[in-house]
Specification:
Length: 221
């Protein structure tokens, strides 16, 4: 699965723009509704909203760059969220660090060594490869995951690992992480809440356009 474009809502759009453009240093373009964050391979758009909301999402960074990424964030006074006192969380398939943005979204930089990208020990923001994950809290993760697979063309890397609380719908290139509403997002005590978003992605050489609105998945035509 390759995420092509993700659109999220933002209550504090001006502060968000300053954070992503000026502090983190991403290339951002302003739109009539908000602004777009540009990575090497896809985009993340924030759309102004009057509603408080927050999400969890992750950016893929080159393997080997995570220690330099920590230095990069801390030089910009971005506090890293710790898990059991540690800045880096180690998974079987990579390493990740986490931070809050100005809407209270749980942002993440993650390395995935199984992917065939060049290893780099330094870090700059223009090395961020792509948006790699988006979280989707729901009352019934198994149901939503089945719909994403059967109706919306996403091929999971390991469907047998799905539980009633956590379903990893996608692969290392791109994934929708479906969790039980109210389950805390690692490494925080913030519960996953249901929020609207739209996403375009490619899987098995087909492009899909999908919205999650008012707790309902819809295909965009």
């Amino acid at each position: 699965m390759e995420i092509k474009e993700l659109k999220l809502f933002s209550k504090y759009i001006d502060a968000q723009y300053a954070f992503y453009n000026d502090v983190l240093g991403f290339t951002c373009t302003e739109t009539s509704q908000g602004f777009t964050v540009i990575t090497k391979e896809n985009t993340l758009e924030f759309i102004k909203s009057e509603i408080d909301c927050y999400y969890h999402f992750a950016f893929l960074i080159p393997t080997g760059s995570i220690y330099a990424a920590i230095q990069y964030l801390e030089e910009r006074n971005i506090y890293l969220l710790r898990y059991k006192g540690e800045k880096i969380i180690n998974f079987q398939t990579g390493k990740a660090i986490y931070f809050y943005d100005k809407d209270g979204n749980i942002g993440e930089f993650i390395e995935r060594p199984l992917l065939d990208y060049t290893h780099i020990s330094t870090f700059s923001i223009n090395q961020v490869i792509k948006l790699n994950e988006i979280g989707l809290p729901h009352k019934d993760p198994l149901y939503v995951s089945t719909v994403l697979i059967n109706e919306y063309g996403i091929t999971p890397i390991d469907r047998n690992s799905f539980t009633e609380n956590f379903c990893w719908v996608g692969d290392h290139n791109g994934v929708i992480i479906v969790v039980k509403e109210g389950r805390n997002w690692l490494p925080t005590n913030k519960p996953g809440i249901i929020n609207d978003f739209t996403i375009s992605y490619e899987d098995n050489e087909k492009t899909h356009y999908l919205s999650f609105e008012n707790n309902v998945l819809r295909r965009i035509t």
